[in-house]
TrEMBL record:
Keywords: Cell membrane, Membrane, Transmembrane, Transmembrane helix. Pfam families: Transgly_assoc. InterPro entries: Transgly_assoc. Belongs to the UPF0410 family. This is GlsB/YeaQ/YmgE family stress response membrane protein. The lineage of its organism: Bacteria, Pseudomonadati, Pseudomonadota, Alphaproteobacteria, Hyphomicrobiales. It is a multi-pass membrane protein. The keyword Transmembrane applies. It is found in: Cell membrane. The chain crosses the membrane at residues 6-25, 32-54, 60-81. It comes from Sinorhizobium chiapasense.
Length: 83
């Protein structure tokens, strides 16, 4: 079973890395578990949105980039809600 061309375990690891990179980029103070969740959710949601527009990407590098962008957007949305 795979998620966008990567295995489930690889998707979790890549999602965690994407979340960690997003935390560093956005200067957010979240824990490791939250980073993993943000990276995975960001990747899944953004992949779903891109697929709805006919832009589907597969592979670990695309999953990392999309997860990073999605996690950054989730961090920004969380900050906007808190204000």
């Amino acid at each position: 079973m795979s998620v966008n061309g990567v295995g489930i375990l690889a998707a979790i690891i890549i999602g965690g890395l994407a979340g960690w990179l997003a935390e560093r980029f956005m200067n957010s103070q979240m824990g490791l578990f939250a980073n993993i969740i943000l990276g995975i959710i960001g990747a899944v949601v953004l992949n779903f949105i891109l697929a709805a527009f006919g832009m589907a990407y597969t592979g670990w590098l695309a999953y990392l980039v999309i997860g990073f962008i999605g996690a950054c957007l989730l961090i920004a949305a969380g900050r906007a809600v808190r204000r």
